[in-house]
Amino acid sequence: MDTLSRLEQIIAQRRDADPSQSYVASLHAKGLPQIARKLGEEGVEATIATLSGSDEELVGEAADMLFHLILALNARHIPFADVLAELERREGTSGIEEKASRSE
């Protein structure tokens, strides 16, 4: 089992824990809008680190982003495997072609 699969399992296990004892449970208790805000915040921080941070800062923000993305997927009951399947579906398709197919 890879790291992201283990993380997905941990997030699922902690989802219904005591919010005072679990960060994951505390975000779930606050609802999807708070989870979405946190994901957006992490995206902004990753963007800033991409432009002006050190490599270590970007790595840390990328890890935060992945964590919060998996948490958001869990909140919507979407397995991370669905994201991987979508990436596999797109494999071999140019980004320009893929984007054009979505805008039709």
Automatic annotation (TrEMBL):
InterPro entries: HisE, PRib-ATP_PPHydrolase-like
Reaction equation(s) it catalyzes: 1-(5-phospho-beta-D-ribosyl)-ATP + H2O = 1-(5-phospho-beta-D-ribosyl)-5'-AMP + diphosphate + H(+)
UniProt EC number: 3.6.1.31
Top-level lineage group: Bacteria
Major enzyme class: hydrolase
Localisation per UniProt entry: Cytoplasm
Gene3D superfamilies referenced in this protein's UniProt entry, alphabetically: MazG-like
GO molecular function: phosphoribosyl-ATP diphosphatase activity
This protein's pathway: Amino-acid biosynthesis; L-histidine biosynthesis; L-histidine from 5-phospho-alpha-D-ribose 1-diphosphate: step 2/9
UniProtKB keywords: Amino-acid biosynthesis, ATP-binding, Cytoplasm, Histidine biosynthesis, Hydrolase, Nucleotide-binding
Family designation: Belongs to the PRA-PH family.
NCBIfam families for the chain: histidine_hisI, PRK00400.1-3, PRK00400.1-5
Name this protein carries in UniProt: Phosphoribosyl-ATP pyrophosphatase
Gene designation: hisE
